[in-house]
Design a protein that fits this description.
By secondary structure, the chain is α/β, with parallel strands linked by helices. It has two helices and seven strands; from the N terminus they run ββββαββαβ.
């Protein structure tokens, strides 16, 4: 399995190359309503969106990237979303 690293996640965390399916209800964090409204028009085009990025924590999945995609998934009643999951090195 390949791994990559980036800023915005805990030190030492790594991301697998392949996205996984995660429960939308287990994701926390994200934009404020004002920030979300600013991006709403850009997201309304209906084009396929890339997987979100989350970090697995003891609280669930902490959102790293994809605030608007998670918002729209919740609004649409979707139960799951594709996500790259970051995990701490073991």
């Amino acid at each position: 399995m390949g791994w990559m690293s980036a800023e915005g996640v805990s030190e030492g965390a790594r991301r697998a190359d392949s996205p996984q399916t995660v429960q939308v209800s287990s994701i926390y964090g994200g934009h404020s309503p004002d920030q979300r409204r600013q991006n709403e028009q850009a997201q309304a085009d209906g084009a396929a969106k890339p997987p979100i990025e989350v970090e697995w924590t003891s609280r669930g999945y902490r959102l790293v990237d994809g605030c608007d995609r998670v918002h729209f998934a919740r609004e649409a009643g979707e139960q799951t979303i594709r996500a790259y999951v970051w995990e701490a090195e073991r």
